[in-house]
# Entry
Amino acid sequence: MANRKKGKIFKAEEVGKQLRAAGLRPTRQRVALAALLGETHRHITAESLHAEARTAGIEVVLATVYNTLHQFTQAGLLREVVVDSQRSYFDTNTGPHHHFFCEDDATLIDIPGEAIQVARVPPPPQGMAVDRVDVVVRVKRA
Amino acid sequence: MANRKKGKIFKAEEVGKQLRAAGLRPTRQRVALAALLGETHRHITAESLHAEARTAGIEVVLATVYNTLHQFTQAGLLREVVVDSQRSYFDTNTGPHHHFFCEDDATLIDIPGEAIQVARVPPPPQGMAVDRVDVVVRVKRA
DNA sequence: TTTTCGAATTGGAATAATTCTAATCTGTTG
DNA sequence: CAACAGATTAGAATTATTCCAATTCGAAAA
# Structure
């Protein structure tokens, strides 16, 4: 626990095990991308992760980054954040929380789950169940 | 007022005036699209409005629908709703309210503004001002 | 360790949504 | 009714993402 920073979803030495546990084979690219996600920031796009990977000398194609992000998301290791209808963001923080979205530079900032209180959400329509409640606080340069 | 349904942003006889007031010239296509928006449902995509227009015999190209939706949005007559990173939705209801988003069929349902209470939104980062707070309740077939 | 098989990656083509552009057309004003 | 500013058009261009068939690679068996 001394060495556990919140937000790190992968620990370098355990990436293999973690992937296996998620039902994904620890292939070269997946391990490398997982390592990057474990070490760096919280909000990424396929494009940004691909750029990071290439900078780090990892040979991986954009299509594979897309596939991998979706696989990690399905496995519950990442969460997709919808704030921009033009680009998909992924968050390494899968716990309950919300976001500030800066419309000027299209960046995200986490808001801890407890910070915001959402009350009196009406019941969903017949036959529907609430999957989750997303709050996006859109901000602009003042 | 007897004849005023909430959600109707345009009244057939006043479309011209309303557009003019918004600083937009009441061209044939704009008037026609505005009339459609005034008469029909609340949530549309460029694609769906284009289909409606063509069905109604209005000759307008998809690019123009996009332009018009953005112009109306800028003029404050429509609001863009971001719920799907792959498609843009527009809402004829520009008042304060939120949405249910059904992930199975990608449809939106309004939640009145007063229905949900969002409390304790933390202050935005330095130099930023809150533009608006969006709540999306994602639902799935149970 | 080598073989083998099934699943994963690849690169590129395909698709979908949206924006851009240059030429043409049309409201509006004088 | 003439002229101009601004709008529309079709299609090309762009961007983000997905799909696909061929190749490669990881893991379990031999």
Summary: The mean pLDDT of chain A is 88.
